[in-house]
Automatic annotation (TrEMBL):
Gene Ontology terms: cellular component: cell envelope
Keyword list, A-Z: Metal-binding, Signal, Transport
Compartments (UniProt record): Cell envelope
Gene3D superfamilies: Nitrogenase molybdenum iron protein domain (3.40.50.1980)
Protein name listed in UniProt: Anchored repeat ABC transporter, substrate-binding protein
Source organism of this protein record: Actinomyces respiraculi
InterPro entries for the chain: ABC_LPXTG_lipo_actinobac, AdhesinB, Bact_metal-bind_prot9, Lipoprotein_PsaA-like, Surface-anchored_actinobac, ZnuA-like
Record's keyword annotation contains Signal: yes
Gene Ontology BP annotations: cell adhesion; metal ion transport
A GO MF term: metal ion binding
Amino acid sequence: MDPATDGVLNVVATTGILADLARNVAGDRARVTQMVPDGADPHSWEPSLRSVRDVAYADLALSNYLLLEEHALIRTLDSNLPPSAMSVSVAEEAAKNGATILPLVEDRSLDTVWLGMRVLGDGASHGANRSSTVDLTLTAAEGPGHASAYLVTSFGAPEIGFTTSDGVSADADTSLLPADAHQHMSWAFTKPGIYRLTFSAVLHPDGTRSTDGAAPVELGSATAVFAVGVSGAEVAAAEGRSLLGAGHADLTANLSATAGKGQTGGVSLAVDTASLPEDLAERAQDAGGLAAAMSVVNLDDVVLEVPPRTLTQVPGSSGYRFVGEPGSDVYILPQAVLGKHVHGDIDPHLWHDVHNAAAYVRVIEEALIAVDPDGADTYRANASAYLTRLEELDEEVTATLATIPQDRRHLVTTHDAYGYLANAYGLSVSGFIAPNPGVEPSVADRVRLAATLRDLDIPAVFLEPNLARTRSVLRSVAEEAGVAVCPLYGDTLDEAAPTYIDMMRFNADSLAQCLGATPSKERP
């Protein structure tokens, strides 16, 4: 049957978890499809032709948003959804229905600068929305060697932001970011010395580069200076700048500033306020909003340090040839949170708290009634029955996790997805280290992780099942320390945990068993 004409309500959800919740509310009154297949990472999954077709026929679209999904998927959803269809950002609406929201807490223990890319502000004054994109483009480069920036996906493949190894080209050396987002990057330099990299920023309000679309907004340009493998203090003193050698910083397209005006202009540097050197703090501006822990500084005031200890070798994988020849020396500022993860400042993984999943269900119930009022009684009955099951699930998960001894309630995982789980059920996130097959971890990385496992007497670390076949620092160090490696679902379902309830039960049992307690009874 043709879904456009068969009379059945069509619902498209971005993830399998959202789709499962929707199926429990919709029952037989709607056809629910998902864009990201089970087992795939929603942070990096890009839409297929099949998913475009599902969107084009949809009466209702459900996305998690809070910048969870790959932005190409969100743009596909927004640009192909029929005008008559309804689109709901479920996590954002859930906050109005009793959901708990938490800030996204990131590891600040790195001993070098954590350098990413950020868009500051939502750009509403320029007509931007969640489909809008910002181009951060390398326009000029000076230095003794080649410079590159890239991110490593959860499955280990590098995605190039820019590289000077093949020259400088706007087409090849542009990173795309949604409004009000930031992403982590690795930065590579092939020879020691001073590098000057100039970046420009352009906002595309409608997310396209079509001549028929909204006019692009030029945000300005600025030059970042890097001291690579040389004394950063000497370079900073010679140039009359402040040295930044640690903490979280983002090359920033500032949508709240007008190019050429004010202290920061349109391209600047957002820095953890706590990491600001005293002489730089005097010239910093408060980033405001959700980025309140950040301050904005002028790139002309800063030298970014890439110290000699960052020297490593180019990986042997052919995917890294843009950095240099395999085995050759390279200085790398590592990607602090590995796995492709463009995100905002609110943790989007709300569903790991069952109370939040219940809020999702209430949002979905309201949305289904809005697009299909005749089915209101059915949706209310289905939602009520499912909410009862979720209440029972929450009690079950709470009871299972309560059996874990207090001194063993530490989570060390591969992915920063478990803040809600910890907050709701009395656990402590003691660290997350995503797999990075592209860059060998430093001795300091391994020592720090081994010390965490030893000092906290951690009996097990947790790896997402869809990453189990990848090489992981977490796995190798845990095995060296005699610590168990156990499965824990994060963003996706699979055949072993095909529903949300199955996933939460599996996670509770895995945590209880591996952290030294007793798993709940077997279930059919």
